[in-house]
Each structure stands twice: as C-alpha cells, then as structure tokens.
Amino acid sequence: MAPYGSHCPFCGGKQVLHNLSDDDEAAIKCFNSIKSNSSYDDVKDPTGLTIRITDKTIKHILKKNGDKRRNYIGSIQETLNAPDEIWTTNIDNVIQRVYIKYFDNLPVVARVDIDNNLFTFHDILKNKKVNSDQARNLRKGILIYKKN
Q: Which of 22, 54, 121, 129 is buried most, with the most CB atoms less than 10 Å from its CB?
C-alpha cells in the first residue's frame, strides 16, 4: 500500500509520492486531508513510544527547499507506525531515534528527538539512488527495532 493510505486527495493511496515541490497549496491539502482522517498529532511506534507531530515540524517539512521532503508528507504516519528499522543514535551531538521505512526502493527517514517530538523527515536519496553514506551514518548507534 502507498504511504498515503486511502485518504490522499490526489490518488486515493495508489502512489508513494507526489510532485508537490512547487505547490504549497497541494502539499498542505494533502497533509490536512490525511490529518483530518486519522489520529496524526500523536503516533505510536512499534515499541509503544508515542511520538508528537507538531505544526512547527509540518511547516518545516512543507517549506520550499531542494530536497523535496514535502513530496513524502503523506508517509510520515506509516513511517512511524510501521518502520523497517528504528535506531537510537547521536547525530551532531543530538540524541535521537531514527525511523527508516522503505516504500519499494524509496527509503524515507523520520527523526525524533529525546522529548519524543518528530523534528525532521526526509529521504536518503542522491541522484535517484540510495545514498549509501547517509544510510550508513543514520544506522549508527543501537538498533532497537527491526521489522521481520
């Protein structure tokens, strides 16, 4: 199933991502549609941890930038609910949990701070291929969950 579930206003959940990079209104519409149809403010991960998703984080994800993270806005909840891996790690002197989820060959990452707040969400691609260096750096620390 695509990460949007059946609530995506664009495809009904058939696609993994949409080209929302240049369309603020479409990105916000997509996220608001998903949020209104689910419990999105607090999401439980497979270890039982409740993660908060704040409007500030969503605005950070939606803002225009070159990494196109807004294209994956609809996959946040599934990445946190059903990740392929969860790591506890220290990146740039910040203790955090790193949630990695693969949608077909597309790896996305949700990063959660020590207070259980989602603080960023992005892919780990470089030139449309998995960025092996970045993937390796995110997988340092302690593996606390791996999907069977």
A: 121
Contact between 74 and 11 under an 8 Å Cβ cutoff? The reply is no
Instruction: Tell me the pLDDT tens digit for each residue of 6-41.
Output: 445 445 554 555 555 555 666 666 666 656 555 556
Task: State the DSSP string of 40-68.
Answer: -SEEE-TTS-EEE--HHHHHHHHS--TT-
H/E segment holding residue 36:
helix 24-36
Least Cα distance to 76 among 104, 111, 124, 48 occurs for 111
The three-state DSSP-derived secondary structure of 1-33 is: CCCCCCCCCCCCCCCCCCCCCCCHHHHHHHHHH
Indicate if the pLDDT at residue 104 is higher than 70: yes
Chain position carrying tokens 């270890």: 47
